[in-house]
Design goal:
- By secondary structure, the chain is of the alpha+beta class.
- α5 (114-129) crosses α6 (137-197) and α6 (137-197) packs parallel to α8.
- A 6-stranded mixed beta sheet has the order 2-6-1-3-4-5. A 4-stranded antiparallel beta sheet has the order 9-32-31-30, with no helix packed on it.
- The protein is built from 8 helices and 32 strands.
- The protein folds into 2 domains: 4-143 and 252-317, Toll/interleukin-1 receptor homology (TIR) domain (Rossmann fold); 367-661, Methylamine Dehydrogenase, Chain H, CATH 2.130.10.10.
- The chain starts with a strand and ends in a 12-residue tail after the last strand.
- The chain has helices spanning 13-25, 41-48, 61-64, 67-78, 114-129, 137-197, 201-247, 324-335; strands at 4-7, 29-32, 54-59, 82-86, 101-103, 282-286, 304-305, 313-314, 367-371, 378-383, 389-394, 399-403, 421-426, 432-437, 442-446, 452-457, 464-469, 475-480, 485-489, 495-500, 507-512, 518-523, 528-532, 550-555, 561-566, 571-575, 593-598, 604-609, 614-618, 636-641, 647-652, 657-661.
Length: 673
């Protein structure tokens, strides 16, 4: 079994995982104890050491005190195959200090680092000696990956800079539009006065000319504002793409080409033996030979393999510098010059006024109503429990209420957040609204008066991406970019218990089971997780299968199923009790699926995507029902069924809310079991 044996203390698992992931990204195949349970790694090492390229040891204060790690390091030393990786240690412990230590302190697992470069150089030399690599193969891949990473970071920085510059520009254009409208009103009054007083044709002509000029200026300002809204939608998509590209260096690479020769494989799994107290975890690393001409990775997510006894893991392959990633970066830089609109955060105390939306638009038989009263991308929408109102959260930092039948805005916008509103939830009795924002807070609102209830709920250290009321209305759950989930007392605003931790990246979505006993969450770490809502403990293993960020999750009405959607353009349905995926992924969307929800009867699923469509699916058979619902001119960020299941509401980056007839064509017949 030619390869590299990785020895480390179990308490250093996170660092070891970082090492393994980095090796996979440069085309090194990785096998470790999680993929091969029951293997006695010390016995394996002693038996296979002659054919191994090296024994790599991660030295930390903990591993330096571990008898098991030292025993394995001793075998490597005696065979002149020891590589010392130093983390928190100045030098290897005696007698292993005969081999120089390679410091990896401060290495984040992806960024260029001198110590890690030396590690890869050493591994490459030993792999070449073992016939498992060619000169420059691993170091070349490392350099290409680091170059792509730096380019991706620069592209994202450019995107963010352009975004902020555009915000400033739009603030100025919005002020100019308001001034133009005010001037038009004044000139119109003057014109009306001239007409009423009969001051003569010359004065009337002058007043009319002045009015025409003011009217043209107001229209031009309005057109500029409309263009800015379109640019903001494009900027939102471009920034998400930039972040996705930046995430690629930390993701598994596509499947490698066939090796030049058959490589030895690990032995069959043997019965598990009782582990000694605090034994070190183990990994075996095998470097596959390179192809004659490496293929360029595809844009799709990496395929997965299932090693013996393990869960699905990405198949490693080399990273090709300057190919797909570079092309994407060029595209991003070209499209980025967003002009998002500024926000008027000043409260309006006139509670009786209402903004009238557009009348029903006959775009298609299934479109019932288009609401155009918002002025920024709409990021979250929901029906009230009675189905008579719609609540929306927007990038203009407001929460708004709408009449679901007429499209009229009810009262004034709910103001208080100081950044985008990313998520909203309505209490089961319809009396309160919870909103989560990019200002890191959650706010509660009186749905009848629009007044904020109490102080903001604070505790998250990142954007609050998702909020949801419990079925009894007494608690609220939230998910954040700080990778945590928190539960709050809805009456007092006090956090209940400790944050729920386990996700390794931003939490994008949360939902509560109908019985209030479980919480489901979706994260950029590509997993769906289920939690005990009382103890805060994770239930079972993470639900894996998505190959990109999980954007949305939801429970079915009976709590027996979970649906999730992701940036991999798929929707997946899971058994909430076993965590097993049900059937095949639902495919059809051509871009990121940003939102997903079950119908009240659990028979249908609705989804919204960056491909600008809303789609309805048969929850049992997985087939799409009818044609995609089209009309939105930008990504669909949020979808929800009405309580009676007869309508669907969608919110979009095109600044509109649309209501659709959900009673369309009959559902397909489920396939036989």
């Amino acid at each position: 079994m030619a390869g590299i044996f990785l020895s480390y203390s179990r308490s250093d698992h996170a660092l070891a995982q970082q090492v393994v992931d980095a090796l996979r990204r440069i085309g090194v195949e990785v096998w470790w104890d999680q993929d091969m349970p029951g293997v006695d790694w010390q016995e394996e090492l002693a038996r296979e050491l002659e054919t191994m390229a090296a024994v790599a040891v991660v030295w930390t204060p903990t591993s330096a005190a571990s008898k098991y790690v030292r025993d394995e390091a001793r075998l490597g030393l005696h065979h002149d195959k020891l590589i010392n990786l130093m983390a928190g240690q100045q030098s290897p412990p005696f007698p292993f200090d005969r081999v120089n230590g390679l410091p990896i302190d401060g290495w984040d697992g992806v960024s260029p680092h001198d110590g890690w470069t030396r590690v890869v150089q050493t591994i490459e030399q030993l792999a070449i000696a073992a016939g498992a690599a060619r000169p420059g193969e691993l170091t070349g891949r490392l350099a290409a990956g680091e170059k792509a990473l730096l380019a991706a970071r620069a592209a994202l920085a450019d995107a963010e800079l352009a975004f902020h510059e555009a915000q400033t520009a739009v603030t100025e254009t919005t002020d100019a539009e308001a001034e133009a409208d005010a001037r038009l009103e004044g000139v119109k009054r003057d014109l009306d006065h001239v007409r009423a007083t009969s001051l003569g044709p010359a004065i009337l002509r002058a007043a009319q000319q002045e009015y025409d000029a003011a009217d043209a200026a107001a229209k031009a300002a309005a057109q500029a504002s409309q263009a800015a809204r379109a640019q903001l939608s494009a900027a939102s998509r471009a920034m998400r793409q930039a972040k996705a590209v930046l995430a690629q260096p930390a993701a598994a690479a596509p499947e490698p080409p066939e090796p030049l020769e058959e490589r030895p494989r690990p032995p069959p799994e043997r019965p598990a033996t009782p582990p000694p107290e605090d034994p070190p975890a183990r990994a075996t690393v095998i470097a596959p030979p390179p192809p004659a001409s490496p293929p360029v990775p595809e844009a799709s997510p990496a395929p997965t393999t299932r090693p013996s006894g393990g869960k699905a893991i990405p198949t490693p392959a080399l990273l090709v510098g300057g190919g797909l990633v570079a092309a994407l970066l060029v595209t991003l830089v070209v499209v980025l010059r967003p002009v998002p609109r500024p926000v008027d955060s000043s409260p309006d105390n006139s509670a009786d006024s209402a903004m009238t939306a557009a009348a029903p638009v006959p775009v298609s038989p299934q479109l019932l109503l288009t609401i155009t009263g918002d002025t920024n991308p709409v990021w979250s929408v929901a029906f009230s429990p009675g189905g008579k109102r719609i609540v929306s959260g927007s990038w203009d930092k407001t929460v708004r209420l709408w009449d679901a039948a007429t499209g009229q805005e009810i009262g004034q916008p709910l103001t208080g957040h100081t950044d985008y509103v990313l998520s909203i939830s309505i209490s089961p009795d319809g009396k309160r609204i919870a909103s989560g924002s990019a200002d890191d807070t959650i706010r509660l609102w009186d749905a009848a008066t629009g007044q904020q209830i109490g102080q903001p709920l604070t505790g998250h250290s990142g954007r609050v991406e998702a909020v949801a009321f419990f079925p009894d209305g007494k608690r609220i759950v939230s998910g954040s970019d700080d990778k945590t989930i928190r539960i709050w007392d809805a009456a007092t605003g006090v956090e209940i218990g400790q944050p729920l931790t386990g996700h390794t990246d931003e939490v994008q979505s949360v939902a509560v089971s109908p019985d209030g006993e479980r919480i489901v969450s979706g994260s950029n770490d590509r997993t769906v997780r289920i939690w005990d809502a009382v103890t805060g403990q994770e239930i079972g293993q993470p639900l894996t299968g998505h190959t990109d960020w999980v954007q949305a999750v939801a429970f079915s009405a009976d709590g027996r199923q979970i649906v999730s959607s992701a940036s991999d353009k798929t929707i997946r349905v899971w058994d909430a009790a076993t965590g097993q995926e049900i059937g095949q992924p639902l495919t059809g969307h051509t871009d990121v699926v940003l939102s997903v929800a079950f119908s009240p009867d659990g028979k249908r699923i609705v989804s919204g995507s960056d491909d600008k469509t809303v789609r309805i699916w048969d929850a049992a058979g997985g087939q799409e029902i009818g044609q995609p619902l089209t009309g939105h001119t930008a990504g669909v960020t949020s979808v929800a069924f009405s309580p009676d299941g007869q309508r669907i509401v969608s919110g979009s980056e095109d600044d509109t809310i649309r209501i659709w007839d959900a009673t369309g064509p009959p559902m397909s017949t489920p396939p036989p079991p």
